[in-house]
Amino acid sequence: MTDSNGSDRKFKWVGTRPIRHDGVDKVTGRAHYGADFDLPGMLHAHVLRSPHAHARIRRIDASKALALEGVKAVITSDDIPELPLDEASGPTNFSDLSRNVLARDKVLYHGHAVAAVAATSTRIAQEALSLIEVDYEPLPHVLDIRAAMAPGAPILHDHMRTKGLKEAPDEPSNIASKMELTRGDVDQALAEADFVIEREFETATVHQGYIEPHACVAQTNEDGQTTVWASSQGHFMIRAYSARLLRLDISQIKVIPMEIGGGFGGKTTVYLEPLAIVLSRKTGRPVKAVMTREEVFRATGPAPATLINVKFGANRDGKIVAAKCELFYEAGAFPGSPVAAGAMCILAPFDLDHFTIEGYDVVLNKPKTAAYRAPGAPPAAFAAETVIDEIARELEIDPLDLRRNNAVSKGSQAAYGPKFSDIGLIETLDALRKHPHYEAPLGENQGRGCAVGFWFNAGMQSSAEVKLNEDGTAVVVEGCPDIGGSRASLAIMAAEELGIDVYKVRPVVADTEAVGINDNTGGSRVTFATGMAVIEASQDVVRQCCERAANIWDIDAKDVIWQDGCAVATGDGAKKLDEEGKLPSMPIAEIAAGAARTGGPITGKASLNARGAGPAFAVHLVDVEVDRETGKVDIVRYTTVQDAGRAIHPSYVEGQMQGGAAQGIGWALNEEYVYDADGVLANPGFLDYRMPVALDLPMIDTVVVEVPNPRHPYGVRGVGEVPIVPPIPAIANAIHDATGVRMRKLPMSPPNLLAELTRAGRA
Amino acid sequence: MREIEYAAPTTVDEAVSALATGGPCQPFAGGTDLLVQMRSRPPSEQKLVDIKRIPEMASIALDASGLRLGAATSCWDVSQHKGLRETYPGLVEAAELIGSIQIQNRATVGGNLCNASPAADTVPALIAVGAECVIAGPGGRRTVSVEDFVTGPGTTQLREDELLVELVIPPIPARSADAYLRFIPRGEMDIAVVGAGASVTLAPDGTCTAARIALGAVGPTAFAVPAAADAIIGSSLDEAALERAAAASREAANPIDDKRGTISYRRTVAGVLTRRAIRIAATRATERSS
Amino acid sequence: MARKTHVQATINGEQTEFLCQPHESLSEVLRNELDMTGTKEGCTTGDCGACSVLLDGRLVCGCLVLAVEADGSEITTIEGMATGQQLHPLQQKFLEHAALQCGICTPGFLVAAKALLEHNPDPSEHEVRYWLSGNLCRCTGYDKIIAAVLDAAQTMGGDAR
Question: Is the ipTM, as predicted for this complex, more than 0.90?
């Protein structure tokens, strides 16, 4: 692997926009997603869900359900192993995961899975659910962070003691953990600052909103071998988690990846798969489990509501000198909110010597949260970037200048620890300043705002194989579900290394038995890490091809280089061929055709844990128009600028920038979970969980900046997550520009904005 | 066994007979509310009487004596009818605001009215133009005003064996026009947070001589606001008169707090939409006289 | 179990027949009885448009049509958009513009866009956004979808007006 990041390289395919290889299947409806698969004799599974936000389960009687014609099995937590409370691997606690998949002893949120039925039709399964009798003892519940942390709050987990405190407590708490990042002497620095701004922010629970509900089919054979067809962000994760939860050998489970209809982090865990596996084992028949839209909202991981306090100290010359941040994130029913990531991101764009950041993970009676695109970062940026805008206004400094003057750059110590290598924050700020949007005139009731976003991006494990076909075309086998065009990017990288046409490369997302381990499609890592594996595997093929050519030519392998898809002899080797009157060039097709004779099939492989993921910065600019009589906000113009390191397929990089922006806009303006006093979600559907529709958005302009990541052969940085980070504060800042009002609570929906406008006398 | 039965009569009499056979029975037009509601409950017995194949119920008859609109006319057909849009633009606006194009092609004005959601878009617009409902039953037909037809959230005067057949709307007087506005948080696809229908008649000098204002989504049913109408009748629709009308709407509004809006927000917006709807209707009425 | 109803319809130009129970939606029958899984289900309440099909030339949500109602009607689904090996210009433009990321909403958008261009061959950007507001996309932010539809309209001769 080279660290050259490709800066001097003249690319043939990287940076072009070929049509994605799976595109025709997707525009004709031929592609199979999770619910599109059936097997003969298949049963339908449905889940019984808790009607209480918090209750003890005294007894479950499924006898009437089992007596219904067509019902073949009913399962409860009795049918899955009980795991020790501390069984964990990294951030994943498997006891919690098991109890989320099927409640044990207690239900912890309205919609929590209690039992599952397999029947010969969906209608019968649904009828069976209403025949299962559950004896609950309702308990007091708690739905908001402050109440959950208050003394005397209903406790969700009697064994929970707050981790990360100086002295381990012996009282149970709903605060699962506290973490802290400190540098310098923040109190001293704040005392010495010219002025200090302290603000509180509040955001609501939101959902990833993928259009495809969770779905899978499981079949267990008589020998205990299970196959699962599932759409997910990681079929290896499905395999590993299911094996762990059900105490099976990993080799007993094969997961075949279906196409995935959106995930954004929400499909990086299991809900239905273990249930379908157990039901298929119990009934001896294939079992299909598909969530309804309502179930997706009620019972799959949303992104947490948050409370964030920030205190910034700044000097009149525009230098931000200190910051104190407190982040409280709801984890839902089980610990594991992304508060640590939020804490690590909140000050990441700023070069600071003095700060303290504290993060608290708080459980309460809502569904267990799951990752959502740059998990933890958007609310953190809402807080920090809004206050930055206030400071800019206070000091009468241009908001981009203020950020530039405090920006991290190569060599800066990141707030979350490591020293930054090459990063592109300043480059993105400069690119935005040059953009025509920055100086365009504004109309009446319009305002403009900007904000910066940061995301670390991940590396993690990827495995790939590149197989040379007999005619010199190639197959790239990898194992990351294609959620946004990654097949095309990986094919581009293979084509680049092999020197063949990108359409002569066939990219394949293979199942868990057909390719090495791949971590999830997530963390903005596929183009980076799986790309790295594909490049390495391709280079392996190239190396083998050069050896074969050297063999055929009877020259030294070190005299053979690869150029435009051909082995080319150089130096003494070329001289020898010249003397023999032979062409010093052998195309890949010829080498491939002769592979059997020269040593056998040519296959390149790579399995790695990618290091050196390049952090990404983005800055967004938005114009809004506010109807002061109703509080409605229209997005009039939107520009995103982002450092992609190297855009392998620019169309799909732009797509990530636009898609993330759209999600941020929805999060900012209208999306929120609305709970009633009983802890029942009032808006579990697309009608009242208001995601942006086509009419809500303008065209979203994208500017791709490339500051290559020195740790990737082509300079790739992850692009998928950072785009969701800036929109919320950018919009809040634009609303302030238009109206003079600062919004510090989400969503900035018409009633909320009108209330603020009225309070400020500006309605 | 909890099963669904389906029947598709081709005349009103057949439909009424089907509804009268006893057991849970429901006329079924676009299904865009009905099917969603059915699916949100556990499976149950139900007979669905599809009325879309009854020609009389999906017709538009517009002439000097007014409008006879078949109850099963789709919102799309209403929105595409040039004559209707010219004569009753507010009514057309209300119909074409209901959902997406996909919903428009199936949802019907009559269905929207019979579903009787407090936020139904058609109802304030129908009240504003003085519409009446023609109901068919085993004993023949009867007529009631739209305001009397809707009796509460989700309930109407319709008995088990009755069918709403058509809406009758009086002709628009000279120098009159209607308008309908709805407030929603997104650009499309939301249920009304507030709906306001207005119709005004102007004298040659621009004075308002008659008016009807109706509000939706701010009470258990949509309702007329006579005080808002009185506030502008006799006026030149100046700012002060419009503000009085807005205040009357705010006063008359009786909304609830729910996931779509708060009481105070809905009251405020009821006033805002009243003012805006009156202005639009007045502009149209003026354009008609020139 | 209730007696199934026999339904005859023309689907993508071909005479088809199937059995269904009265409660089953057209989407369910297309997907489960006829193995036409191109029509997707995102919500079953008519709020996402992933199940968009044409019923007698009208754009509808298949989840809100009962399969029994389809007797005697003409239905067009995503599977009927391409002609043999030839993609419809909309499908081609979606590919060229990268107007899909995960692709689950794509069949619904294509059917809806086809209906739009049949009704209005030369729509403005606003008209396209308005018409397609019944189709949710969570991946793309709609930008490239709108661009693809406008480009397809040009290609299909819309600018000739």
Answer: yes
